[in-house]
Amino acid sequence: MSEPVVAREVAEIAVQDWEELFSVTMEPDTRETVVRAIMSGRLTLDEGSEEFAYKLRRPIVLENGTKIEEMKLHEPTAGQLRDAAKGKREDFETTLRLIGYITGCAVMDRVGQKDLLTMAAVVGFFG
Predict the structure, then answer these.
(1) Which residue in 30, 46, 54, 105 has the fewest CB atoms around it within 10 Å?
(2) Burial of 104 (0-12, 13-18, 19+ CB in 10 A)
(3) Which one is predicted more confidently, 34 or 108?
(4) DSSP state, 76?
């Protein structure tokens, strides 16, 4: 990881605050993923809307030249949860569909692995 934009202590406090806000306790590995995303300046939370903003490590370039550089993650609706789990899908496919629904991104298959893992960790706040 390059030089942090946000100090580790500040990032850890942010995660604690977010855990309290969403009434969850994250697993240590998931928590570390989120802390690192905050430290790198890629993850923020708009507490008013309870929506996370995540800056992709590698932007997605669409066929029309449009770049997707940031995704917003919000709490999934019951319908989105139901649709993501339809057909008794594997956990990975369910997670991929769910992130696609809550970000509004139809090209999730182009998202890099590290970005996907970080967004999956953020979804844990809504659990």
Answers:
(1) 46
(2) exposed
(3) 34
(4) P
